[in-house]
Design goal:
This protein has about 160 residues and is an alpha/beta fold. It contains 5 helices and 7 strands, in the order αβαββααβββαβ. The longest helix is centred in the N-terminal third of the chain and has 10 residues, at about 5-10.
Length: about 160
């Protein structure tokens, strides 16, 4: 998996024309914002966590940070971030390109409410040099099994 699986996922749903690839790294929020000439808050970063019943992804605004209390109240477990190896094995994308598109079966996806503040956001597309421009509603429609959560620290 990786860019090819994420791109294929988006192409099957009519969004491949929104995919942007770069000659520079977009592996961090800061690098992605610089490459896209946008604010860090508009980068839709995807965080991988491991729950007792399997891996999850949480997509949130680039400037948001997970709140441990809210996370525990939502998922009823302490937050355990996926390691590099676990992200590749359990999600199908390496850190720097983790995204909610084209992931392995059984990965549950959550969208943090911080994304709703913006008219467009830019998640990665499975590689450390890609992004896709979407509205939060389009992101939600691309991920019909995703659920909205509020796990970010109050800003």
């Amino acid at each position: 998996m990786s860019f090819e699986s994420a791109y294929s996922y988006l192409k099957e749903r009519g969004f491949s024309d929104r995919v942007i690839t770069f000659d520079v790294s977009t592996a961090t929020v800061a690098l992605a914002a610089e490459a896209l000439h946008t604010e860090e808050c508009r980068i839709a970063k995807t965080l991988g966590f491991l729950l007792s019943d399997g891996p999850i992804l949480v997509v949130m605004a680039g400037d948001a940070r997970a709140d441990n209390r809210k996370y525990r109240n939502t998922f009823h477990e302490k937050a355990h971030m996926l390691s590099y190896e676990d992200a590749v094995e359990k999600i199908g994308h390496a850190p720097g390109g983790v995204c909610p598109f084209g992931v392995k079966e059984g990965v549950r996806i959550f969208l943090d409410v911080t994304l709703k503040k913006y008219d467009t956001v830019f998640p990665a597309v499975g590689s450390s040099n890609s992004a896709v421009r979407l509205t939060p509603n389009e992101l939600e429609s691309l991920l019909p099994d995703a659920r909205w959560v509020d796990i970010a620290k109050d800003q």
